[in-house]
């Protein structure tokens, strides 16, 4: 017995030695946080911070052929099977797999980290791609040195003998900052510690957008390292003046310090906090994503600037930017132009812009194409103004010079007689933005004559072409009708089931029927967080609203089952889902149409506002609260709406409110949080717990409801950016007026109501709103309690002044934003 047991142990030992020996590399490091002199990382070996949060090693972005050394969040990479890279060592010096063979990230005996490779053609020729050597003034001939990946994600070269930091990755950020990293001006290296966007989705080399800290303590957003297009406003000790959202319920604290060795801005998060970072995106926007373990996806806490079209040069030359595009890209080539590099566009790099399809003839052979409602304000600085007071003269001025690409001629309403503008653009036309409605100016683009639609220049000979086309067309239509009739007849006689299957209370519509009902999706009611909504009419002449879900990628069976659950939820204050359509990748939801549109149109619209009186507003507040209370409490499964805002409160013929878009959070699953925060405006309604990585409960809806209630009272958006870039935050202002200055609640009431409101209801609504937006979610009432409070069944105590509101109020130098 004993002998056989011993044998077994021996055999095991030998086996393990055998299997270990060929792979064993005494210099290799993996899964540890420290590398000593002589050690290196190869292949998929990595360094992992002691807390397991960060991992450092080789990576390849997307389908790229290049290798880099980078840093990512370990947990996120495991869950998403995709690395969120927050630092790259060799961003400008890629290792090309077709060219190089073995690569090694090594700590040399002289104390420097290097990235060395050998070429495929000659394996004995070793090339040093990257090194910390050039990045530090300190001479580090120190074999006692070690490289440690800290719990904060900082890779540090540490001298074991005296503990000095010889080099750290935090001093050399790429496109992102982690909590604890220093952002600013380093007086020792005389360098800006700034961040620069990637070139495109697969290329981490420095792109066009960067942000740096200016001596006046503001963050400057620049294009091509020089041209400022956005500024954060100065640091006031608590937040950058245009970024008051920074203070709202974020678990992090911010700090600005100035020493002899430089001036730095940092932010911090508790060690146990969810992964969070700040980075400059390919879109030129600064974003703060935080990891939500609940949705297993990133949620963006804030985005600056909020509108992507305000980013300089984002669409490149001869291309139009439109924030409302729900399509794959916000950029579109001007008519007569095509993408310069479609491949770059696919990688989200639009900077190459567009080029002419047909080159100009010059002289009179060219003509102009008129574009309506363009915002030219960002393009005007690059235009040449001409003193002519006649549209024809302006046009011919452009026509006469072959390098003139476009002109605009308009009367500047704010100017006097000199306000007439003839603007000519030579060369690249950048930063033009498409506006909706009747805003903006007309722009005339010069095109080769062949690119301008013939239109009025039709000649007699074309009449015959038209006759021909009509004849052929008629024949085709008759043919198709015949085939269609035959098909229909066969179908009828073979008694196939009705195509409109019934799902409980729901109708499964066919796509083509919805296409007909909406006249080919022509009458757009609006575009929401999940897609556009179109007006339609069913054959029985009932009005419907059809929501076309964008970016949809769920399997049909799951979609149908989720939808039929939503279909079961019915309440007088919830919009009724009539049916849906699910064919291939198309997913549509069909709702009852609400004749009075959405609440935002009544509250905020300047032109012909349908002003709601106080009685109506109060009833809307109660009705909405009832609808939400039903979702939270009465349904079998608690449904969190997650996107309460005036756009999602619809009004029926009697102005009774109906909550729309509920259940979509579940329907869209992980897509949801991404979609929600990429949509402008929603950010102002997000509860703090969205930004802290805590579990989301129904109290998140209560918060958004409170935010909305402020808007119902005041008739204005809570968060508004002024012309000077200053951000106005209504709840702050309101709370100060009423709670600190002791003014009457009438001072926060919508001016349009002219103080016509029941003061008791008004102060109750104000108090409820304040309770709803408490940072601490246990302090917020439930929706059921909100209903009781608004109905006057229970008293509402005076709310405590919000701590974060207080910070905002104390540090606001500017007096009344709203007066
Ligand atoms: C380990 O490092 C030492 C010192 O740099 C070097 O001489 C040796 O070749 C390395 N061994 C391996 C297996 O890489
Ligand atoms: C990466 O690691 C896995 C195990 O963790 C191993 O099976 C695989 O061979 C490694 N790949 C390379 C290229 O070293
Ligand atoms: C890799 O290197 C080869 C040879 O220098 C080059 O032809 C190829 O374009 C490079 N690939 C990338 C992705 O840089
Ligand atoms: C390979 O590289 C080594 C070192 O750079 C050099 O001495 C040798 O001549 C090279 N061999 C060839 C075939 O190019
Ligand atoms: C960016 O700036 C550099 C140097 O100032 C200049 O050479 C380059 O042409 C600029 N790029 C563009 C696209 O304007
Ligand atoms: C600058 O000096 C301060 C105070 O001496 C120190 O805390 C900080 O780490 C230094 N920063 C750098 C980048 O050296
Ligand atoms: C940089 O250092 C010098 C001398 O140490 C000091 O005079 C200067 O004020 C510092 N500049 C900044 C921006 O801190
Ligand atoms: C066309 O306009 C450009 C820019 O103003 C100017 O440099 C050029 O001389 C003009 N050419 C002619 C033929 O007028
Ligand atoms: C309109 O004219 C005013 C005053 O002349 C000027 O400040 C403003 O920039 C002009 N606006 C446009 C869009 O040209």
From TrEMBL:
Transmembrane spans: 463-485
Signal peptide: 1-16
Domain Bulb-type lectin, residue spans: 32-170
Record-level GO BP terms: recognition of pollen
PROSITE patterns in the record: BULB_LECTIN, PAN, PROTEIN_KINASE_ATP, PROTEIN_KINASE_DOM, PROTEIN_KINASE_ST
Subcellular location as annotated: Cell membrane
Name of this protein: Receptor-like serine/threonine-protein kinase
Protein source organism: Stephania japonica
């Amino acid at each position: 017995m004993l002998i056989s047991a011993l044998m077994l142990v021996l055999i095991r030992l030998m086996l393990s030695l055998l299997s270990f020996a060929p792979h064993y590399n005494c210099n290799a490091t993996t899964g540890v946080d420290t590398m000593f002199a002589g050690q290196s990382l190869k292949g998929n070996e990595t360094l992992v911070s002691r807390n397991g949060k960060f991992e450092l090693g080789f990576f390849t972005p997307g389908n790229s052929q290049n290798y880099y050394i980078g840093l990512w969040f370990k947990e996120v990479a495991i869950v998403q099977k995709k690395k969120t890279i927050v630092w790259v060592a060799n961003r400008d010096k890629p290792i090309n797999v077709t060219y190089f063979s073995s690569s090694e990230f090594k700590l040399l005996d002289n104390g420097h980290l290097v990235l060395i490779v050998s070429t495929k053609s000659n394996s004995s020729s070793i090339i040093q791609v990257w090194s910390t050597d050039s990045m530090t003034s300190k001479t580090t001939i120190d074999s006692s040195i070690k490289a440690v990946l800290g719990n904060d994600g900082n890779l540090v070269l540490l001298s074991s003998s005296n503990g000095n930091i010889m080099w750290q990755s935090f001093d050399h950020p790429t496109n992102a900052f982690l909590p604890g990293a220093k952002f600013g001006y380093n007086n020792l290296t005389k360098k800006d510690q700034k961040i620069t966007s990637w070139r495109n989705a697969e290329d981490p080399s420095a792109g066009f957008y960067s942000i740096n800290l200016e001596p006046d303590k503001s963050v400057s957003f620049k294009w091509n390292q020089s041209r400022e297009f956005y500024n954060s406003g100065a640091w006031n000790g608590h937040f950058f003046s245009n970024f008051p959202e920074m203070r709202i319920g974020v678990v992090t604290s911010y700090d600005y310090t100035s020493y002899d060795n430089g001036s730095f801005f940092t932010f911090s998060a508790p060690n146990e906090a969810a992964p969070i970072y700040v980075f400059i995106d390919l879109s030129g926007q600064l974003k703060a994503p935080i990891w939500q373990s609940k949705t297993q996806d990133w949620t963006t806490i804030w985005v600056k600037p909020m509108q992507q079209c305000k980013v300089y040069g984002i669409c490149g030359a001869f291309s139009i930017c439109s924030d409302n595009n729900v399509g794959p890209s916000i950029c579109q080539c001007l008519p007569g132009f095509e993408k310069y590099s479609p491949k770059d566009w696919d990688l989200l790099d639009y900077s190459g812009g567009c080029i002419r399809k047909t080159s100009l003839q010059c002289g009179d052979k060219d003509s102009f194409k008129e574009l309506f409602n363009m915002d030219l304000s960002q393009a005007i600085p690059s235009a040449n103004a001409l003193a002519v007071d006649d549209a024809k003269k302006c046009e011919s001025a452009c026509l006469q010079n072959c390098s003139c690409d476009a002109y605009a001629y308009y009367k500047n309403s704010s100017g006097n007689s000199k306000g007439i503008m003839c603007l000519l653009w030579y060369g690249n036309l950048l930063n033009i933005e498409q506006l909706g409605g009747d805003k903006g100016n007309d722009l005339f683009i010069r095109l080769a004559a062949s690119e301008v639609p013939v239109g009025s220049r039709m000649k007699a000979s074309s009449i015959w072409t038209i006759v021909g086309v009509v004849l052929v067309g008629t024949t085709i239509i008759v043919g198709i009708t015949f085939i269609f009739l035959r098909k229909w007849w066969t179908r009828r006689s073979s008694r196939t089931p009705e195509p409109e299957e019934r799902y409980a209370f729901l109708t499964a519509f066919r796509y083509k029927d919805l296409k007909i009902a909406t006249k080919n999706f022509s009458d757009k009611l609006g575009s929401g967080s999940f897609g556009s909504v179109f007006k339609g009419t069913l054959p029985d002449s009932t009005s419907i609203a059809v929501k076309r879900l964008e970016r949809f990628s769920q399997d049909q069976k799951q979609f149908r089952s989720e939808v039929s659950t939503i279909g079961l939820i019915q309440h007088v204050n919830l919009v009724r889902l009539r049916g849906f359509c699910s064919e291939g990748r198309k997913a549509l939801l069909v709702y009852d149409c609400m004749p009075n549109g959405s609440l935002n149109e009544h509250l905020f619209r300047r032109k012909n506002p349908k002003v709601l009186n106080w009685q109506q507003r109060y009833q809307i507040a109660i009705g909405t609260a009832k609808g939400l209370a039903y979702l939270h409490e009465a349904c079998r499964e608690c449904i969190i709406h997650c996107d309460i805002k005036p756009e999602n409160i619809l009004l029926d013929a009697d102005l009774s409110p109906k909550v729309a878009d509920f259940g979509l959070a579940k329907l869209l699953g992980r897509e949801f949080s991404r979609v929600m925060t990429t949509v402008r405006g929603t950010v102002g309604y997000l509860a703090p717990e969205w930004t802290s990585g805590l579990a989301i409960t129904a109290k998140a809806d209560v918060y958004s409801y409170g935010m909305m209630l402020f808007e119902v009272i005041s008739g204005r958006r809570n968060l508004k950016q002024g012309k000077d870039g200053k951000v106005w935050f209504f709840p702050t202002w309101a709370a100060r007026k009423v709670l600190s200055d002791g003014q009457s609640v009438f001072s926060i009431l919508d001016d349009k109501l002219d103080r016509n409101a029941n003061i008791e209801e008004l102060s109750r609504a104000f108090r409820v709103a304040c309770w709803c937006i408490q940072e601490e979610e246990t302090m917020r009432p439930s929706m059921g309690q909100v209903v009781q409070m608004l109905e006057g069944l229970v008293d509402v105590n005076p709310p405590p002044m919000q701590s974060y509101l207080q910070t905002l109020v104390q540090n606001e130098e500017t007096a009344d934003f709203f007066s």
